[in-house]
Amino acid sequence: MKQVEILPGEILDLRLDKNDVRKTLLNQIIAKDVIATEQTNPSLNNSHLNHIIIVTYKAPGENTGRLGFEARIEKITEDYQVILRRLNEPAPCDLRVWPRVRLDFLPEVRAFCRDREIQVVDISGGGAHIILRNDDCGQTAIGAVVSMKFVFPRGEVNLEGEVLRIWNDSPEKRHVAVKFTGSHNISQFIY
Questions:
Q1: Which pLDDT value is given to residue 191?
Q2: Which tens digits make up the pLDDT trace of 19-70?
Q3: What span, in angstroms and rounded, lies between the C-alpha atoms of 55 and 159?
Q4: DSSP 107-160
């Protein structure tokens, strides 16, 4: 196996399960197929030993996506390092459980928050990128939960979403990334 192209200090995502992805930093490359990372939060413990996980990282270069490989958790040291043995070569990967669908592929979808229509940039079974103007959804801060209604030609879905990220395009346009919470059936209208 060739050595991975990651430098100490780079961010890694350790995917333990479908809904359990933990960020950490690479501490060192011990051998071609063995790396040491910082402990995660929440911490890994001895019950995780010998589990096979997926390790992903930003590929070298700009806008090149992510690479990942399978690894076995071999040891958790007294100085809180996690020792991982790489099991295969890095390959392109995506952490998403649900692929994003851009609005140009679903032009009929409409979304509402507090009875005000909001703009959808893209949507998946797990969340959406929306654009809000002024106080479309009231006070939106990271961690806040917003109630939304999505209307499709074949039906509608009422659900809640937790605000993950916010960024401004202009003073009146606020981009918001939301993760859908609770039980819902929105994926049947998207895919």
A1: 77
A2: 788 999 999 999 999 999 999 999 999 999 999 999 999 887 766 678 889 9
A3: 32
A4: TT-EEEETTEEEEEEEE-SSEEEEEEETTTTSS--TT-EEEEEEEETTEEEEEE
Please count the residues of the chain.
191
C-alpha span between 28 and 84 (Å, rounded): 11
52-58/91-93 β-pairing: unpaired
Parallel, antiparallel or unpaired: strands 34-38 and 20-31: antiparallel
CATH of 101-190, one of 3.20.20.70, 2.40.10.220, 3.40.50.150, 3.50.50.60: 2.40.10.220
Asked if pLDDT for residue 175 goes beyond 80, the answer is yes
CA distance 93 to 131: 28
Residue 114 has pLDDT above 80, yes or no: yes
Instruction: For strands 155-170 and 101-102, give the pairing.
Output: unpaired
11, 28, 120, 121 from 188: Cα distances, Å = 34, 44, 17, 19
CATH domain 11-93 topology: Pnp Oxidase; Chain A (2.30.110)
Q: Where are the domains of the chain?
A: 11-93, 101-190
pLDDT digits (tens, 9 = 90+) for 60-108: 776 667 888 999 999 999 999 999 999 998 888 766 666 777 777 776 8
- State how far the alpha carbon of 10 is from the alpha carbons of 38, 82, 119, 158, 165, in Å: 11, 15, 35, 39, 22
